[in-house]
Design a protein that fits this description.
This protein has nine helices and five strands. It has 224 residues and is an alpha/beta fold. This is ABC-type glycine betaine transport system substrate-binding domain-containing protein.
Length: 224
């Protein structure tokens, strides 16, 4: 009888220990909650001070987001693209607007060099076909740090001084701070503007017209 009692006690202890270990294992495997989206009070767009094109684009995106109820502010910087992208990754801003080829070259210079070579071999490139726009954009998306992402590329081409790769306008953002509804707004703006319209807006901005008023008028003309 004594042996039976000891066996029963041992069995109970083993079962109890097994249940405890199982519970610990389940607890350890339980997924962590996702990072909440859109937690910042103001979405901050970093814009270079001496770049009229960047200022116009920043105002377009800011005006559109504000119009849809997303509090947004523009940060003016003296830094070039490299400094802006470093600030973005460091978390001191939320959104940087740049040209796809230049951004790819910053994050993945080897792949950019390969695509430059292929691009140069094309006897004729239809810039309106979208083939190379998407090719560079896909390469860019695959080269971004995991904390960053790009919204859809615009048909508008900027950075006229850089011609070795397509330079479609594309916003780069920090993932936690741009929920889907904000990304949808940026995609609408990017899809609404052409290269010629961007150039006109840049010209208008140099005529001392209010950038925010000009941006809102343009968006309204596109049915925004």
């Amino acid at each position: 009888m004594e042996n039976l009692g000891k066996k029963a006690l041992t069995t109970a202890l083993v079962l109890s220990l097994g249940a405890a270990l199982s519970a610990c294992t389940l607890e350890a495997r339980e997924p962590q909650p996702p990072v909440p989206l859109g937690e910042v009070n103001y979405l901050q767009i970093l814009v270079p001070k001496d770049d009229p094109e960047g200022l116009v684009l920043g105002n377009l995106y800011e005006t559109a987001l504000d119009d849809r109820g997303r509090a947004t502010s523009i940060q003016i910087t003296d830094g070039g693209l490299d400094a802006q992208l470093n600030d973005l990754r460091a978390g001191s801003t939320d959104l940087v607007i740049g040209c796809s080829g230049n951004i790819l070259e910053f994050y993945n210079p080897d792949l950019a060099a390969q695509l430059k070579y292929e691009y140069a071999q094309q006897s004729s490139v239809d810039k309106n076909s979208g083939e190379w726009r998407e090719k560079v954009y896909d390469a860019l998306q695959g080269s971004l740090p995991t904390s960053l992402a790009a919204t859809d590329p615009s048909n508008a081409v900027g950075c006229a001084e850089s011609t070795e790769l397509p330079q479609n306008i594309v916003p780069i953002y920090r993932k936690p701070n741009l929920p889907r509804q904000d990304r949808d707004v940026l995609n609408i703006v990017s899809g609404a503007i052409s290269t010629e319209e961007l150039q006109t807006l840049v010209k208008d901005s140099s005529n001392d017209l209010s950038m925010s008023e000009t941006a809102l008028e343009f968006l309204r003309s596109k049915g925004f």
